[in-house]
Design brief:
Distance between the termini: 122 Å
Protein name: DUF4817 domain-containing protein
Number of domains: 3
Helix content: 40-55%
Pfam family, one: DUF4817
Organism: Habropoda laboriosa
Structural class: alpha/beta
Shape: rod-shaped
GO molecular function, one term: nucleic acid binding
CATH topology of the largest domain: Nucleotidyltransferase, domain 5
Mean pLDDT: 81
InterPro entries: DUF4817, RNaseH_sf
Strand content: 5-15%
Number of strands: 5
Amino acid sequence: MVLIYGECHRIMREAVRVYGKRFPDRNNRPSLSVFTNIIKKFQETGTVDNKTRNLAKRATDDGNSINIVAAVIRDPHVSTRQLERKSGISRRSILRILHINKFHPFHISLHQQLTENDYTKRLQFCEWGLRKLQDDEMFLSKLLFTDEATFTNHGAVNRHNMHYWSVDNPRWLREVDKQRSWSVNVRCGLLHNKIIGPYFIDGTLNSSKYLRILEDVLPELLEDTSLDIRQSMWFQQDGCPAHSARNVTEFLNRKFVGKIKGRSVPRKTNYQT
């Protein structure tokens, strides 16, 4: 078409006529407008090939992926909304980038806070336990672990994790009673592969209630435990104030002679009144 256009001394209508006469067998003969556009393209670009499409830059291309991954590594707690505001990339694309790169939104786990002295005491407990295991490989099966826990009726509800799939809004409600709160204390133990308890404590635990548990309740809970285990059993408790009261320590020193393990529990002592 370009050559014919030149042969016709750049007369467009003449070039169209000559092209149709020279190639009569072609079904799709170019019209004047098509011929004009092709010649114009050749003059502007030097080619009659279709222009390569400039594809829009993908949000998940290598550059954006590197920036998002780097931001997450720099601050593992950053939210996708913050990334969206800073990068200008949609949250959907950000989630796709993180998924492609094997990142997962792990949730926090809550653990008991330790004080500075707790690390040393835990190390001492582990070293003590290892020495006991060297003397008796069945030692852990003779150690009664005990503790209390308080349960209340005002537990937190994470609405983000509670769903109700429906076409229409069901107006799903959950009643909570913040004005009339209650709590219950539960004591439980673990001896080898057996759970000792639970035992529900009425009100706040104090030394008198704890002593009654040790004197009256614990023997009942241990009825199914063999006599040899009970006679060789060690007793473990934490540093709750009720556990270290004088009347409690006196009883424990009589009941578990030299076999008490816990915080604030004195060695066997003879108290005089």
